[in-house]
Amino acid sequence: MATIKVKQVRSAIGRTKTQKRTLEALGLKKLHQVVEHEATPSILGMIAAVSHLLEVQIIFKIILK
Q1: CA dist list (Å): 47 to 9, 18, 28
Q2: Nearest partner of 35 among 23, 26, 22, 45, judged by Cα
Q3: 46 vs 7, 15, 18, 51, CA distance in Å?
Q4: How far apart are CA 16 and CA 4, in angstroms?
Q5: Contact predicate 54/47, CB 8 Å
Q6: pLDDT tens-digit profile of 28-42?
Q7: pTM confidence score
Q8: How far apart are CA 53 and CA 62, in angstroms?
Q9: Do 51 and 58 touch, CB atoms closer than 8 A?
Q10: I need a labelling partner for 50 at 20 to 30 A (CA). Which of 28, 31, 58, 60 fits?
Q11: Model confidence over 9-58: pLDDT tens digits?
């Protein structure tokens, strides 16, 4: 599964309560803070809801046997 790095690049000031709570649920509290999450449908939905405030980077893990 892919890992996603999420960075908050725009302020939550003046945003709705739901958008602020979504940022908190993603673990983002400050500008330019970076967190990593697994690419689950719930995380992807939260990222889509506040995508205008975020910078997203997808990291694919390749496992060779």
Answers
A1: 13, 13, 11
A2: 26
A3: 13, 15, 10, 8
A4: 24
A5: yes
A6: 999 999 999 999 999
A7: 0.87
A8: 29
A9: no
A10: 60
A11: 999 999 999 999 999 999 999 999 999 999 999 999 999 999 999 999 99
Spatial separation of the C-alpha atoms in residues 54 and 65, rounded to whole Å: 35
Encoded tokens for 7? 């960075």
Residue at 11: amino acid letter = S
Burial of 62 (0-12, 13-18, 19+ CB in 10 A): exposed
- Name the residue type at position 44: L
Question: Within 10 A of 50 (CB to CB), how many other CB atoms are there?
Answer: 23
What DSSP string describes the chain? --EEEEEE-S--TT--HHHHHHHHHTT--STT-EEEEE--HHHHHHHHHTGGGEEEEEE------
